[in-house]
C-alpha cells in the first residue's frame, strides 16, 4: 500500500474517527491537536442515521449509550415557565427530530473515540500547523513548536476556521458563508429540574430588536444543564481569542430577558467551557488539492444549529478512509471516491440547514412566534413518517457498504 503516513490536523470527532479507520486499514495516522490535551467541554451533539452504523462498526455502541442525554422532547415556555408549545421526542423517531435518540455531550464522544485509538495512534498535543508545502511525492509540514515533518498525505479536520484550508485552498472568506446568526453555549449547575425536557424561552423581535431565545438543555447529570443563547446580528464583529469580551457581548444582549435568564447569566462569567461563534456554512467546490484533503466542518459545515454536523463528520471519516483503502492509498483515486460518496449527503444536509433556517428560535415578530408555536403543537397530530422524513431522510443518504475498506464486516458490533 502506498501513502501510508497521513497527518490529520484536528483531534475532534472527524479527525479521531478518521484515525481509527485509517489505522484499521493499515495506514499510519498521526493527529496534531492545538489543545494541550483531549478537549473537554462543548455542547450536546446528535448521532443520526448512517452515523449510528459507523459507531456500531467501531464497536462503540455500549460506551455511547452509557453517556446518552435523557431526552423527552423540546418545550417552548412563557416567562412564567409554562409550556406554550412542546413536541415529544417520540414524535420523530430515532434520527428525525430536533433532539436525536443518540444525543450526548461532544466531550463524551471525543473521549470515547480517543480512548479507542490512543494506544495505536500518535497524538501531538499543544501544537498546530503553520506551513504546508506539497510536491509530487508528499507534504512537508511546519509546526508552531515542533520540527518540520514529512508525510504522504495531509487531512484538514480542524473545523470551520481551518488553518489547513487557509494554507492550502486560500482565505476563509472564499468558503465560509455568514448566516447572520450567533449562538453561545456553556455548561452549568442547574437550579431547574429539567426531567429530560429541553426548555426554550423566546423573546420575539420588534421595535428594532431581533428575536432571541434562551435555552436550557439537560445532560446526563441531572444536577447540571447546558445554557444556550441564540440571536441575530448581521455583520457583528468580535475577537475569537477574547473569551471575556464574548461573554460580555452575550450578557449585554440578554440583560433584559426574563424567565431564568438572570440566573443563567450569573453562571456565565465563571464558565470554563464557554463556546461562542457565528452560525456559518462552509461551501467549497472540491475537498482535495494535491495531497491535502478536507474533512468535516472544514469542508462542509452545514450549520452548528443543523443537528447534522456530527453525523457528517462520522460518515465522512468512514467514507474517506474506506476509499483510500480501496484505492491502495492512491490519494487521487481515494479523494475522488470520497467526494463522489459524500457530495449528495453534504448537499442535502446544507440545503436542509438553509431551508429550515433557525428553527423558529429567532422570530422577528410576535405573530411569527405564534405561528411557530402553532406548528409545534401540530406535530403530535401528524404521522411519524411525515414528521421525521426531512432530517431522517437526509441522515440516511449514504450506504456504508458502498465505501467499506477491505475486510470490513457489514454486520454491526453491539
From TrEMBL:
GO terms for molecular function: FAD binding. Residues 5-326 form the FAD-binding domain. Transmembrane segments: none annotated. Pfam families: FAD_binding_3. This is 2-polyprenyl-6-methoxyphenol hydroxylase.
Amino acid at each position: 500500500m502506498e501513502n501510508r503516513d497521513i497527518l490529520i490536523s484536528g483531534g475532534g470527532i472527524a479527525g479521531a474517527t478518521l484515525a481509527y479507520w485509517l489505522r484499521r486499514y493499515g495506514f499510519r495516522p498521526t493527529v496534531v491537536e492545538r489543545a494541550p490535551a483531549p478537549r473537554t467541554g462543548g455542547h450536546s451533539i446528535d448521532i443520526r442515521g448512517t452515523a449510528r452504523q459507523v459507531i456500531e462498526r467501531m464497536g462503540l455502541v455500549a460506551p455511547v449509550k452509557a453517556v446518552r442525554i435523557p431526552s423527552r422532547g423540546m418545550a417552548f415556555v412563557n416567562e412564567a415557565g409554562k409550556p406554550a408549545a412542546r413536541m415529544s421526542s417520540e414524535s420523530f423517531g430515532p434520527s428525525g427530530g430536533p433532539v436525536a435518540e443518540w444525543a450526548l455531550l461532544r466531550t463524551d464522544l471525543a473521549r470515547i473515540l480517543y480512548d479507542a485509538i490512543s494506544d495505536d495512534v500518535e497524538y501531538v498535543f499543544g501544537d498546530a500547523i503553520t506551513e504546508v508545502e506539497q510536491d509530487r511525492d508528499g507534504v512537508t509540514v511546519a509546526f508552531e513548536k515542533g520540527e518540520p515533518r514529512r508525510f504522504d498525505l495531509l487531512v484538514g479536520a480542524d473545523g470551520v476556521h481551518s488553518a489547513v484550508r487557509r494554507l492550502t485552498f486560500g482565505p476563509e472568506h472564499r468558503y465560509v458563508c455568514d448566516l447572520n446568526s450567533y449562538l453561545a453555549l456553556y455548561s452549568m449547575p442547574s437550579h431547574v429540574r429539567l426531567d429530560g425536557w429541553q426548555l426554550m424561552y423566546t423573546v420575539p423581535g420588534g421595535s428594532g430588536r431581533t428575536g432571541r431565545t434562551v435555552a436550557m438543555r439537560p445532560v446526563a447529570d441531572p444536577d447540571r444543564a447546558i445554557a444556550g443563547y441564540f440571536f441575530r446580528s448581521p455583520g457583528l464583529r468580535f475577537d475569537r481569542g477574547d473569551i471575556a469580551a464574548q461573554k460580555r457581548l452575550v450578557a449585554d444582549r440578554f440583560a433584559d430577558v426574563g424567565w431564568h435568564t438572570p440566573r443563567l447569566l450569573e453562571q456565565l462569567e465563571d464558565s470554563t467551557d464557554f463556546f461562542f461563534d457565528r452560525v456559518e456554512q462552509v461551501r467549497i467546490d472540491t475537498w482535495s488539492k494535491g495531497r491535502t484533503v478536507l474533512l468535516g466542518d472544514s469542508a462542509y459545515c452545514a450549520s452548528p444549529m443543523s443537528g447534522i454536523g456530527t453525523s457528517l463528520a462520522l460518515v465522512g471519516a468512514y467514507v474517506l478512509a474506506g476509499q483510500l483503502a480501496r484505492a491502495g492509498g492512491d490519494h487521487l483515486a481515494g479523494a475522488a471516491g470520497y467526494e463522489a460518496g459524500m457530495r449528495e449527503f453534504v448537499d442535502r444536509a446544507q440545503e436542509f440547514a438553509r431551508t429550515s433556517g433557525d428553527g423558529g428560535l429567532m422570530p422577528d415578530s410576535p405573530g411569527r412566534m405564534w405561528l411557530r408555536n402553532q406548528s409545534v403543537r401540530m406535530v403530535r397530530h401528524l404521522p411519524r413518517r411525515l414528521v421525521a422524513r426531512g432530517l431522517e431522510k437526509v441522515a440516511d443518504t449514504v450506504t456504508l457498504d458502498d465505501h467499506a475498506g477491505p475486510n470490513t464486516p457489514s454486520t454491526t458490533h453491539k
